[in-house]
Every structure is written in C-alpha cells, then in structure tokens.
Amino acid sequence: MASDRTLITLFLDMLGAERGASVNTLENYDRDLTHLSEYSNIALQDLNRDCVRDYLKHLAARGLAPSTQARKLSAIRQFYKFLYADGLRGDNPTLGIDSPQIGRSLPKLLSEQQVDALLIAARNRVEEKADLKSLRLLAMLELLYAAGLRVSELVSLPKSAIQGGQPYIYVRGKGDKERLVPVNDRSLRALEAYVNHMKTQTDTPEKGSIWLFPSRGAKGHLTRHRFAQLLKELGAEVGLLPSQLSPHVLRHAFATHLLSHGADLRAVQKMLGHSDITTTQIYTHVLEERLKSLVQSKHPLAEPSKPKQF
C-alpha cells in the first residue's frame, strides 16, 4: 500500500502536468490533504465515507467558515476521484457527501476616493525617498488597479510581460492561460521609472533576475504575503484598517469602478481572466447594493432611521 505522502504527490503531479494547475492551487491542495492525513488514524487509501464526514464535522467544530470547509471538501473529492480513476481505490468515499451551505457574500470594496488616497500616498513616498522600494510599491499598486490582476499574477510577472512601452501586458493566469491586459499611461510611467531605477542597481543579486519584482526569497520574486503586508502598511497611512484592504480588494475595486463608469461586462470578464461570466456578474450585484443603499439613505422621500430603544 502506498503511503499518504506518495498518493498526495502523485495527485499533485497529475494536476500540474495534465491540468496546468498553478503553484498556489497545488500548495493549497497539498496543505488540505496533508491536514486530512494528519487528522485521520486511517491511511488515506482506506478512508471511508464516515471518516470523511467525521473530518468535516471536525472542521465545523473548529469554527472554519463554510467556504473554507467547501474548499477542503473539493480538494478531497478530486483526490479520491483521481485514486478511483487510476485504480488505486475501488470506490470514491466522497460520493453522497453534500457541501456546506455557503451564503452569497459580496466582495469588499474601496471607493474611488480611497483608491486615489492610496495612490497619492504611494506617490508621496516616491517623491520623499525616490528609492527602489518606494518605486516598486507605486508600480505594483498602479498596475494592480489599472489591470485588475490577481496578486499571484502580479508578483510573478516576468520582465518579458512588458513589451517596449506598449499599452498592455502579458499575463499568465489560472490554468496556465495567457491573456493580454490593457494598462493606462500612468501605470506604464510608474513601471518605467521603477525598471529604470532597478537597472542602476549594480550590487544586488536580483539584477539578473527574470522577474519584474525580484527578491532574495526562495521563489525569486516578491511574495503575495509580503506585498499584502506592504499594502496594509500604506493603507494605515490613509486611515484604512487592515481588514479593509488587501490586494484582492483592489482587484474588486478595479472591476466595480470600471462597470460603474459604463464598461462592458464581457470586456471586464476578459481583463479579469474569468472563464465564466457568472463569476464577473458578482460585481453588478455590488453596484446594485450600493445604489439601493444610496437611495435608502439619501433620497428625500426615504424614511429616517428610527432611534434604537434602550
């Protein structure tokens, strides 16, 4: 009988080779399946349906969000589907197990004024310091908001993504799919200033790197977590709480602000790299909720809110 680690590795190899799964997806699946292996007293190859249900109850008892529970169950389902298809098991123990009920939640959103405040703060840093780190942060922030990239796409951009000042960048997204994303002049100028400054650095190990945003870390480029940390630090300067701000919130802002200014939903779908337009449609619901809230609070015929009784 193969060990749990061997089976997980075979599954991850299949996802990477046959389905082009991203590094982040593989890391998440590895973490979820390893956690199941560590929790269970039975080898994964022998796990039955009751064991899977018991594990899900354990996750719920720990207070994990239904969305997190559903994600973990999805990883387990695909793992056992792989084992069954490859003849490593005679059945799939996840059949008949329902996913946790997930309510539809709307994305967090920043206003255009809040995004402008972030950009102004980043530009002020450049004016004050004019060093590589401040130029890098401004370039990444401008590019994230101009192109609506996933943070994993942003930090792993190669230098070849920029083609001689052309008003677009090449992005390799989920499933190893490439797309061409237009960017504005302001983000291109920020990128140009950053790249030109980087070329003047002569004594850094990142100089010969293939990455647009290199670092000394194991991956060779700035990590998602480090960029998120830098973003939250910048947000604190303009009065944004850490819970209000993340790279993904800026991706939401990009899409919602475009739609609010009349952009075509299909065009936004292509720029975001969504394979299904229903994923993009969540941003139309965000706009509907904002409009509803505006009417209820600002319309002259709206009923004033009653004071709370204590």
From TrEMBL:
Superkingdom in the source lineage: Bacteria
GO biological process: cell division; chromosome segregation; DNA transposition
Domain Tyr recombinase: 105-296
Pfam families: Phage_int_SAM_1 (PF02899), Phage_integrase (PF00589)
Record keywords: Cell cycle, Cell division, Chromosome partition, Cytoplasm, DNA integration, DNA recombination, DNA-binding
Protein's cellular compartments: Cytoplasm
Transmembrane segments: none
Residue numbers annotated as active site: 150, 174, 248, 251, 274, 283 (o-(3'-phospho-dna)-tyrosine intermediate)
GO cellular component: cytoplasm
Alphabetized SUPFAM superfamilies for the sequence: DNA breaking-rejoining enzymes (SSF56349)
InterPro entries: CB, DNA_brk_join_enz, Integrase-like_cat_sf, Integrase_catalytic, Integrase_recombinase_N, Integrase_SAM-like_N, Recomb_XerD, Tyrosine_recombinase_XerC/XerD
Domain (Core-binding (CB)) ranges: 2-84
One Gene Ontology MF term: DNA binding
Quaternary context: Forms a cyclic heterotetrameric complex composed of two molecules of XerC and two molecules of XerD.
Family, similarity comment: Belongs to the 'phage' integrase family. XerD subfamily.
NCBIfam families: PRK00283.1 (NF001399)
Function field: Site-specific tyrosine recombinase, which acts by catalyzing the cutting and rejoining of the recombining DNA molecules. The XerC-XerD complex is essential to convert dimers of the bacterial chromosome into monomers to permit their segregation at cell division. It also contributes to the segregational stability of plasmids.
Protein name: Tyrosine recombinase XerD
Species classification: Bacteria, Pseudomonadati, Pseudomonadota, Alphaproteobacteria, Emcibacterales
